[in-house]
Amino acid sequence: MSRPRVSCRRVGGSQDVWAEFEAEALPHAERLFRLAMWLERDRQDAEDLVQETMIQALQSFHRYARGTNCRAWLSSILQHVRSNRRRAGYRRAEVADIDDRIAETVPFVPAVPDRLMDEDVLAALGAIPEPYQAVILLCDVEEMTYKEIAEALSIPIGTVMSRLHRGRALLRRQLAQAGGPERRGSAAADGAR
Amino acid sequence: MECRDARELAEPFLSEQLLVETTQEIVRHLDRCHPCRSEFETQRRLRAATRTAFDRSPGLQMSPAFAAALTTRLRAEAAPPGRSRRWRTWVAAAAAVVVVAGAGVHWRAGEHLSALARLALGDHQNCAMRFRLAERPISLEDAQRRYGGRFEALRTVEPALVDLPAGPLRIVERHACVFEGRRFAHLVLEYQGTPVSVLVTGDEAGAGWWNGTSPHLQEHAGGFRSESFHRAGYAVVVVSALPEAGLDDVVRAMAGPVSRALEGA
Description:
The complex is a heterodimer.
Chain A: H1 15-24, H2 29-40, H3 43-59, H4 70-87, H5 98-103, H6 118-127, H7 130-141, H8 146-153, H9 157-183
Chain B: H1 3-8, H2 10-14, H3 20-32, H4 34-56, H5 64-78, H6 103-129, H7 140-147, E1 163-164, E2 167-179, E3 182-191, E4 194-202, H8 204-207, E5 216-219, E6 225-231, E7 234-240, H9 244-263
């Protein structure tokens, strides 16, 4: 067991910094945790990740541009912290050629069930490769721009866009499979194919 | 704009990433193309469903305990540097007489309690705040059965006062846990939205050095404070990131009941 952490680096900030951080950044902790929990799939790991993210955010709060998207800023830090941890051997390395491999296998976009159940959506999301999950979550849930996602994941904007495109197609395929014929909606995309 | 062009731009259109002119072209196309409008609506619906499912999923929610611990940890990080370890007279326990045999004994008692306080701090951080211990906590009843001592007596201890100056004090958890080989009876309390641990551990050796209830205040780096005292062969350490006055409030409320429980009164 590691020893208790009885000494840590000080922020050197004042009560004003804390008050501002508390008002600006802390309210996003819950959303940040959901993202961490989804990515880590383990509560302890998610808590560690969020705690480290928030501490780093507090320590570099002077660099946060007031009035910009604080949630995106925090999500970005979380991705960097997670990425560093993975590089340090926490997790398996991300498959480098994932885009190339998936590009060959993405089918045409199927219809989506009329009724989308939360569990079906999350199961479908969890079934697609992780790099696609990440961009979809950062885009749809965190409402980050492509540029913010690119910075957070350290990938080019073009890759963000292609991953979103392919990821959504894979997500729809998963949902169509999960929904079964009786729950499938009309093939809305037919008209343009 | 043709259907194919519109659909290729659906992603950036729905993400509001397109130039105004392109957006207007797509809007014009959607006005006259029902299949594309339907497809765009499907994509919009799927995005909303993803966000909603994510936000509502019970398995993804942050626990209140972690939320409180996180706030405490961050507040401690943001706090101005604390003073180094120091001795202090505890005014609230002035009724107790400190019996000190000499400066050497005083120093040894301080070192002894400092070591215990550091273990208690480790337990507070890893158990009350991060729920990460090598050995799973057990109930006080189980600890009593297995190890004897006064674990059972702490099962019903309540604060002498629950309405403290800065708000209510409540006990949220009681168990026995082990940190780095030291077994504690652990009462987890909450005061001012901050976790507070009252940790009790057998300490016959310390009894010879430390007599009385005048507490030993220690300020640890990271914004944590502990107050320790000795009673009936047990060391009692109260740990929290509360400000000094807040910690005093808790010690005042708990010292009497805990002492009486340990003395078997």
